[in-house]
Amino acid sequence: MCGVYIRQLGRIFGVHAADVLTFVRRGFAHDFGCYHEVVARMNTAGAALFDESRLPAQWDHIAHAELAWLSLSYRYLRQLQDGEREPQDVPMLYRLRSIPDFPDHPVAHWLALGVVPMPTGPALALH
User: Fold this and answer.
1) Are 72 and 63 in contact (CB under 8 A)?
2) Number of domains present in the structure of the chain
3) Residue 122 belongs to what domain range?
4) Do 40 and 84 belong together in one domain?
């Protein structure tokens, strides 16, 4: 989930050189194990770009889709590992090694669930 949040922050603040402004996942020790948070690393120029009031209060359409895609991808992977499913039975969308590019549109969640086919070229209906 940290990776999804980092990508959402990149959509909000833009992607900059790592020494200017970047968001990274950090692990912290806790009595019950380790937990992770996303932290901002920045220099003086990055501090001018960063505004805490712009931090999102909720997931955007793309993040919702990415979370749904990750959940289903992990489920298919577990089913493959447990022998409950054959590789050819996994839909092509979930065989990808990286998260697909979802549109910033409410239909993105349905794309991630495989209910609506992912466009392979320009999709004017999604704009």
Assistant:
1) no
2) 2
3) 61-126
4) no
Bridge-based pairing state of the strands 33-42 and 21-30: antiparallel
Q: Which pLDDT does position 127 carry in this prediction?
A: 47
Domain boundary (54, 78, 94) is at 54
Chain Cα centroid distance, residue 85: 25
Which pLDDT belongs to residue 114?
A: 84
Whether residues 84 and 122 fall in one domain: yes
Tokens 């931090």 belong to 55
pLDDT in tens, 39-88: 999 999 999 999 999 999 999 999 999 999 999 999 999 999 999 999 99
Instruction: State the Cα–Cα distance between residues 82 and 76, nearest whole angstrom.
Output: 10
Would you state the structure tokens that stand for residue 45, as one six-digit string? 């120029």
